[in-house]
Amino acid sequence: MATYTPPLTPPSEPTKRLKNLEPEPIDINIPDNYVQHTLKTQKELPPITWSNWYRELQWISVLALTITPALAIYGAFTTKLTWQTGLFSVFYYYVTGLGITAGYHRLWAHRSYNASKPLQYFLALAGSGAVEGSIKWWSRGHRAHHRYTDTELDPYSAQKGFWWSHVGWMLFKPRRKPGVADVSDLSRNEVVRWQHRWYVWLILGMGFGLPTVVPGLLWGDWWGGFFYAGALRLTFVHHSTFCVNSLAHWLGETPFDDKHTPRDHVITALVTIGEGYHNFHHQFPMDYRNAIKWYQYDPTKWFIMACQWVGLASHLKTFPDNEVRKGQLTMQLKRLRETQEKLTWAPDSNDLPIVSWDSFQEQSAKRPLILIAGFIHDVASFLDEHPGGRHLLVKYIGKDATTAFFGGVYDHSNAAHNLLSMHRVGILQHGYRQSLDDKAIPPAQRLRIARYNELGSSTAVSDAETLVGEKEEKEA
Q1: For residue 24, how many other CB atoms are within 10 A of its CB?
Q2: Average pLDDT of the chain?
Q3: Residue 263 exposed, middle or buried by CB count within 10 Å (0-12, 13-18, 19+)
Q4: What are the DSSP calls for 131-163, one per residue?
Q5: In 40, 235, 420, 433, which residue has its Cα 20 to 30 A from 47's Cα atom?
Q6: Which residues of the chain, if any, have pLDDT below 70?
Q7: Hey, what CATH topology would domain 349-454 get?
Q8: pTM of the predicted model as reported, rounded to 2 decimal places
Q9: Is the separation of the CB atoms in 229 and 215 below 8 Å?
Q10: In 30-134, alpha helices (H)
């Protein structure tokens, strides 16, 4: 064994550097077994029951999520909806929704692209109009959700049920404190700090003030603006975003990974302004896209691309296509493996008896045995089903029909090869060349999905150590 040598470039001292230049990340010193340690040492609040539920409510969230739809319902019965207000409500729904999806989510929570100051202020204002908490608070929870997906430290874990992940986690006090997640980068962002400082005024102004004033000043519909562009629009924005935590973990497929609950579905994409391809997102969270195919609905992606075209956004991050395709291939192979294991296959050659030619002849006199490619087949159940007629099989009983089967009389189909293999009952002694003749392998088994530990290849490497890149340099 070569002696250990230290790195040529000494590692930096991140703690000291961060203390001098920027706030220290909150998760820099967490233990390796943080999740298990926290679950064992952190006291969990008692379960919510019929006797204590009212004491466990988070009243600010309860009021926000009940008064708003109540106002919308009242307004729908008392105030006529004009077409101008209706169009503005839909438009403002997308504006404030994009404040969450393009701003809170993809820009600040995941840093999937860079935004200019004007775009950051626009998204901060638009996100305030969605009334879902400040950027810093929202991103902290969302980063915890990604780091601890489906665990007890996930603030809106789908494992606790659809309604809990949709609204329950906001209506009731969390049973556990969400897992630690660093937002020190957001603490240094002046736009995030500005929004956090003035958040209450911003939600009043952007949540209800602006959507009331615009219809009121432009076409005199003050109450319509308040009820429809304000309350009803806000209700839709809330539940649109909440569906990313609930519906996106419940409805759809897992084309990239099925280890966790996130799923892809076009319906979820339609109701969440493009956030419905959630399985992709959880696999590649730093990618500015949710939908990777041109025809998939992702207006948030289109908005970010448009901002790049006009110079407001840059450095749009995309995960290497090669790695994305590996994820897809992994799941495709897994599905094929599942299908493969449900099928009945021909007996393995190692499990079949070896029969001498004389024994083959003797037994053929008692039952219809035919020799093909070194395998002995009992065709009793197929004699009357043979498409070419019974007589073509009967004349080869006790004989070698290999040439006839492989094109001499008829070049049989893959289906015929597969079916024939299911009639194997023995191997002719000295008549089967194992691993040398593909004709002995049924077409359905020539390509099989095997787990790594089934391949039988050695992963051992040389005991001699080399520097990174040394092999390539020597070969050059």
Answers
A1: 15
A2: 90
A3: buried
A4: -S--HHHHHHHHHHHHHTTTSTT-TT-GGG-HH
A5: 235
A6: 1-22, 432-439, 456-476
A7: Flavocytochrome B2; Chain A, domain 1 (3.10.120)
A8: 0.83
A9: yes
A10: 34-41, 59-78, 83-98, 117-128
